[in-house]
Write a structure and sequence with these properties.
The structure holds two protein chains of two kinds. Chain A is of the alpha/beta class. Chain A has a single domain (8-187), classed as P-loop containing nucleotide triphosphate hydrolases (Rossmann fold). Chain A is 32% helix and 26% strand. In chain A, strand 7 (128-133), helix 5 and strand 8 form a beta-alpha-beta unit. The longest helix of chain A has 22 residues, at 166-187. Chain A is globular. The two termini of chain A are 30 Å apart. The relative contact order of chain A is 0.18. Chain B has five helices and three strands. Chain B is elongated and about 45 Å long. In chain B, helix 3 (70-77) crosses helix 4. Chain B has helices at 22-25, 55-63, 70-77, 81-93, 113-124, and strands at 42-45, 68-69, 97-100. Chain B has one domain (19-124). Helix content of chain B is 37%, strand content 8%. Chain B is mainly alpha-helical. The chains are: A alpha/beta, B mainly alpha. Chains A and B meet through strand 1, strand 2, helix 2, strand 3 and strand 4 of A and helix 3, helix 4, strand 3 and helix 5 of B. Chain A: It holds the Pfam family ATP_bind_1. Chain A: Keywords: ATP-binding, GTP-binding, Hydrolase, Nucleotide-binding. Chain A: One of its GO terms (molecular function) is ATP binding. Chain A: This is ATP-binding protein. Chain A: It comes from Pseudonocardia xinjiangensis.
Chain lengths: 188, 126
């Protein structure tokens, strides 16, 4: 039933703490209206068996944003905002598997909020860029300060961006793809 | 996990406007041969006549007039993506849909350089 000669889906994970701008970024770039998905609350990583047993009890609406960019006739890029709550960690694996990589959004007023996302990407060797969302009052921080604070590997790009600007969001995704490509080239 | 927690993540009224209960949509089954399909797998309708199918199946085939992901199918039908996967797998097995899985993996299961280059060119051209 699979056909590998047709259109190709790709995905990018957008991660970071609550309220850091994940939704804004996904919606800035998406050509489809925002949609919420409803997901099983329990045993989700092994399937949806429990839904049938207790209809209406075991699902919840996950405010997980996803967006779509039709790159060309046969290449479609999906952007997935990771759910913020800890109990949805199981979904990260499914989203990260086979992805291009992740954009980790950072609010410089609450840098520590991005630690779990950075740890995740490092542990899974997922290519990622750190994107400093330009909130008022944060312009004094340099990219190097953040790199040190997060103890990032030298090859991890740190970009400054504004999630409210479509062009800035696109540039951030491009930075990630360039980085992912470099990693592929180096590793291959 | 706290299943008994108040439904603060449940959008108002969403549960009520689902077309039919999930277990009815899937005929009581919650697994299928296609359960490993990634959420971004694309589905495309074939030209097989689908007028006699149940409503949810026809909705999917209509959506799949252009490539759509499992995730979009789930959101459009307001069912979990796992349920969308079952429905899509059934339709693919019966010849109503073709499923396009993600690109052949490169290093570490990541997309191959060739595909990333195409993506990069496409994004830069926007």
């Amino acid at each position: 039933m699979r056909d590998d000669n047709g259109p190709i889906p790709l995905k990018v994970v957008v991660a970071g703490g609550f309220g850091v701008g994940k939704t804004t970024l996904v919606r800035a770039l998406s050509e489809i209206p925002p949609l919420l998905t409803e997901e099983p609350l329990t045993a989700a990583s092994v399937g949806v068996d429990d839904i049938a047993a207790v209809p209406g009890k075991n699902t919840t609406t996950v405010a997980m944003d996803f967006g779509r960019i039709t790159v060309d006739d046969a290449l479609i890029l999906y952007l997935f905002g990771t759910p913020g709550q800890d109990r949805f960690w199981f979904m990260w694996d499914e989203l990260a598997r086979g992805s291009v990589g992740a954009v980790v959004l950072v609010d410089l007023r609450r840098v520590e909020d991005c630690f779990p996302a950075v740890d995740y990407c490092e542990n899974r060797q997922l290519p990622f860029v750190v994107a400093l969302n330009d909130f008022p009052g944060t312009t004094g921080f340099s990219a190097e300060t953040v790199r040190e604070a997060l103890a990032l590997a030298p090859d991890v790009p740190v970009v400054r961006m504004d999630a409210r600007s479509d062009g800035s969001c696109l540039a951030t995704i491009i930075a990630l793809v360039e980085h992912a490509l470099e990693r592929t080239t180096v590793a291959g | 996990m706290t299943p008994d927690e108040p439904a603060r993540h449940t959008g108002a009224g969403r549960r009520d406007d689902r077309v039919v209960p999930v277990y009815a949509v899937t005929g009581g089954r919650t697994r299928s041969s296609g359960r490993d399909l990634p959420v971004e797998s694309l589905v495309l309708a074939t030209d097989r006549w689908a007028g006699d199918l149940q409503k949810e199946h026809r909705m999917i085939i209509e959506l799949a007039g252009r490539p759509v992901s499992l995730m979009e199918v789930g959101a459009a039908l307001r069912v979990p993506v796992g349920v969308a996967r079952v429905l899509v797998s059934d339709l693919a097995d019966s010849g109503y849909l073709v499923v396009h899985a993600p690109a052949p993996a490169g290093v570490g299961g990541r997309p191959a350089a060739e595909v990333l280059n195409r993506l990069l060119a496409g994004l830069r051209a926007r």
